[in-house]
Design a protein that fits this description.
This protein has about 400 residues and is an alpha+beta fold. Helices cover about 60% and strands about 15% of the residues. A hairpin with a 2-residue loop joins strand 10 and strand 11. The model has no long low-confidence stretch (mean pLDDT about 80).
Amino acid sequence: MNIRIKLILAIGIATIVLNVFYSIVVTQQGKTLWMSHYRDMLSERLDYTAVLVNLFFGRIENNLVSLSKDSDIIAGLTDSNYQKKDIITQKLDQFKNIVVTVESVGIHTTKDGRCIVVFGDESAQNLVGQDFSDRDYCKGILESKKPYISTVFTSKVTGNPAVGLAVPVQNDKGEMVGYIVGIVKLQDLRGYLWDLQNDESISVLFDRNNLPIVHTFDKEEDYQKYQEELLQLHEKGNEGFFETPTYLYGYKTVQNMVIVIGEPSKNIRAFLLQINQLIIPLNLASAGPLLLVAFIIIGTVTQRLERLTAIAKNISQDQKDAAVDPSLQKSSDEVGVLSRTVAGMVESIRQSQENLEKKVEERTHDLEKLNSYMTDRELKMIEMKKEIEQLKQS
């Protein structure tokens, strides 16, 4: 087989193998990079969601703090007869109309370490006098004496899941005499979370007891379907990522609540598949131009090698005019080195031949002289013999 064909085949096979290997490496690296991209994307959305949750509860808290400083409310809690009931009820209704993310608002006294409802807006009048000491927000604010967000419970006003945001009320001595609690509309928070997410992704907000405050699944049974894998995050720290066959999850803790955002794994796999389908054919297609370049380069090299082969053949046939083309010797590559080496060998052989011919000529001349000398001697011997014979006869 022609060396040119052998080289092209070898380079072609090597090119295809390298391209396949490169495709595999790029694919794996691409997967790592795109997974990193999706994690960065989830991190950004987690940060946005954390800001939204802080703003959502922060706005309610700020308004409740302002309400807790109202002189009528402070006086109402310090007056055991609660003579300001109508005024306070009116103010609570006004508050609920302004802060629409609160479904009801009530004021609790904290005498004897118990939380008893003493005032409420119109929707919560039936709760006045009830004891809510078992509520998480009662226990939390009695212990911290600071604004407190409760775990999830069922609202006695609407019957819907809700959380309570409690803010202490202090008298002029700085003592906590009670607190105001706003029952938060989780459906509004769900709408805000829904607006932040992408198609098919999900958002879940857990309370400190790992109960879902709100989620963006279309149906409750959809949440129940993924509840077990979602609860895995509570064993993994305050923030991070974890992957399941269905979702890539990112989670972050904010105000004792855990925000979880899930990106469907099928979307990630489909995107990576598209990358693979693009990269591998492109790499294989690049083999054609590479082979063309290899063919051109090999052609120029083999042409010069073929010329050197012809010169070597001429030398072997003892052609006197055999010589290496000077243009081959000018190259700085291996062919140029080989050409100069062959030229040196040709010159060395030529000089050896010339020296040999000269010696042969000298030896021939010596032999001719010797032969002439020997011939003259023979002739002389013959003449001497003749003279001796003549002398004997005389």
